[in-house]
Amino acid sequence: MNPTLTDVIGSKVVVVRHSDPSLVGLEGRVVDERKNVLTLETGRGEKMLPKTSGILLIDDQEADLNRMRFRPEDKMKKIRRKGRQ
User: Fold this and answer.
1) What is the CATH number of domain 12-79?
2) In the predicted model, is pLDDT for residue 24 greater than 90?
């Protein structure tokens, strides 16, 4: 499973590295995904995680946030294009 091209809503996420150092170590479940933001449900409420440079662990697999910077509804287009090449 490639976490950058699959649906991540409901997945457990841990921020390993991020351009905003205050977000490193943040953990939670993804409740919403937009083009430039992931919304995480944490123990302290919902947190917005910008999809700027950083590394996440999504269900124990590393994912680069820069490679996730597109709308969730465009993921199928990306999968189809990747399969044709």
Assistant:
1) 2.30.30.210
2) yes
